[in-house]
Design goal:
Blueprint lengths: L12 H23 L4 H4 E3 L5 E14 L2 E14 L3 E5 L6 H8 L8 E10 L13 E4 L5 H4 L7 E4 L3 H4 L6 H12 L5 H14 L5 H6 L7 H13 L5 E5 L7 H18 L2 E6 L2 H7 L2 E6 L2 E7 H6 L4 H8 L50 E2 L5 E2 L11
Parallel strand pairs: 4-9, 4-10, 7-8, 8-9
Antiparallel strand pairs: 1-6, 2-3, 2-5, 5-6, 10-11, 11-13, 12-13
Helix pairs in contact: 6-7, 7-9, 9-10
Bound molecules: adenosine-5'-triphosphate, iron/sulfur cluster and magnesium ion.
Length: about 400
């Protein structure tokens, strides 16, 4: 190897071949596992708390790339309680979308694979076991075929840009009816239309018959997002995952869509996982907040706890970098200095260490453990470790 190229970012041919060989082996293994014929008992488990709709425990989702393994989700654990709005926040690339795609089993395969952990989904299909415990599906272990019964029906997803989810050559009505037929195959054409129009009314569209006959390009961005929400609601889901649902919209429409999501959550009792990088959206809409950094959760709590008493230096930094309209200061907006470490070569210490201004001696040790601050508030930072927690 040329001495000049001997740096961390350079991969020799030998190293590239080694990575390729490893990737093929891993991808084959996980793909085969997904197609394996298994008994229902293999993917049925019990909920730790029957009041939770989803319990994510030590989830690990990796991408086997040419440069090495990217641990996009690196041991993530949190719950989505029934009927709550859980906001997931963190800067670009921290693993928010990959976490949600893992819940849907929609991670881009074969490079992307869930390699560990569990996602327990509290389904009504299974009832209780002999000990009276609530039975659940472990989505991580569910074969693809079984997943079709959950995805789109019990769990639905709304994306940032509705135009990418709507087909431009079919009318809104045609596409809505198609979804209705998937959930209710017994319905006639007329009944499906009635159902679709009812859904359009529910999402606040004032001329539902007209929108039903329109093509997606004839609608505004806000209207298209409402159509997507109507589509997501059509099967009466228990969980709606909204990945940056308002990022492509202007602020007034953004507020309307957030109000709509909140209204729907109250009316239907479903839970919402709301992914955003905007703390303002979280403050307005969420009940609970999960803060992610570099594939891990660094703080979680109720919206009050995270806003009134942010503990992790990264959460504090996020709060400080939020623009405020009622201040006269001419100071430039705060931005957290430094960069996220290389996702292929994460350090053994706290991942935030290179950007943290609060470092103490202990921060040179291994990655900190999650510390319980209250029944609902948890933080992963050495600053809050008591001697007896060690
Ligand atoms: N298909 C893919 N192939 C390789 N790496 C991927 C792929 N999808 C995501 N990743 C990597 O996984 C990490 C997490 O990505 P993810 O999309 O979850 O971020 P995010 O938090 O949703 O960011 P954003 O706010 O920009 O949407 C990133 O480092 C990204 O590069
Ligand atoms: S553990 Fe240390 S380096 Fe990491 S956020 Fe806390 S104080 Fe900063
Ligand atoms: Mg994303």
């Amino acid at each position: 190897m040329n001495k000049k190229n001997k740096n961390k970012n350079y991969l020799s041919l030998k190293e590239s071949r080694k990575i390729l060989k490893y990737n093929i082996k891993q991808m084959r293994y996980y793909e085969r596992l997904k197609k394996k014929k298994v008994d229902q008992s293999y993917f049925v488990t019990t909920m730790k708390d029957p009041n939770n709709l989803v319990e994510i425990e030590q989830l690990e989702t990796h991408f086997f790339t040419d440069s090495g393994t990217v641990k996009s989700v690196n041991g993530v654990s949190f719950d989505i309680p029934k009927g709550r709005v859980v906001g997931v926040v963190g800067e670009s690339g921290c693993g928010k979308s990959v976490t949600s795609l893992s819940i849907m089993q929609l991670v881009q395969a074969p490079q992307g694979q869930i390699v560990g952990g569990s996602i327990r989904f509290n389904t009504d299909d299974l009832g209780l076991n002999e000990n009276g415990e609530k039975l659940a599906y472990d989505i991580v272990k569910m074969p693809m075929k079984e997943m079709y019964n959950v995805r789109g029906k019990d769990i639905t997803m709304i994306f940032q840009e509705p135009m990418t989810s709507l087909n431009p050559v079919f009318t809104v009505g045609y596409q809505l009816d198609e979804v209705v037929f998937i959930h209710y195959p017994e319905k006639t054409k007329e009944e499906a239309k009635e159902h679709s129009i009812e859904m359009l009314k529910q999402v606040g569209i004032s001329m539902p018959e007209r929108v039903y006959k329109s093509y997606p390009h004839e609608l505004s961005g806000g209207m298209r997002q409402r159509v997507m929400i109507a589509m997501a609601l059509s099967g009466n889901p228990k969980l709606i995952i909204a990945d940056e649902p308002t990022t492509a919209l202007d602020v007034t429409i953004q507020a309307q869509i957030l109000d709509l999501l909140r209204k729907i959550q109250k009316q239907t009792g479903c839970a919402i996982m709301l992914i955003t990088h905007d703390l303002g959206v979280i403050a307005e809409t969420a009940d609970d907040v999960v803060v992610m950094y570099a594939g891990r959760i660094i703080e979680r709590g109720t919206v009050r706890e995270i806003f009134n008493n942010p503990l992790h230096p990264y959460t504090v930094g996020l709060q400080k970098s939020k623009p405020l309209i009622n201040t006269n200061t001419k100071e430039p907006l705060y931005s957290i200095p430094g960069q996220v470490p290389n996702p292929i070569n994460m350090p053994n210490t706290c991942f935030f260490k290179s950007r943290c201004s609060k470092c103490i001696e202990k921060c040179n040790h291994e990655y900190p453990h999650e510390i319980k601050v209250s029944d609902t508030h948890y933080v992963t930072c050495y600053l809050y470790e008591k001697e007896d927690n060690k």
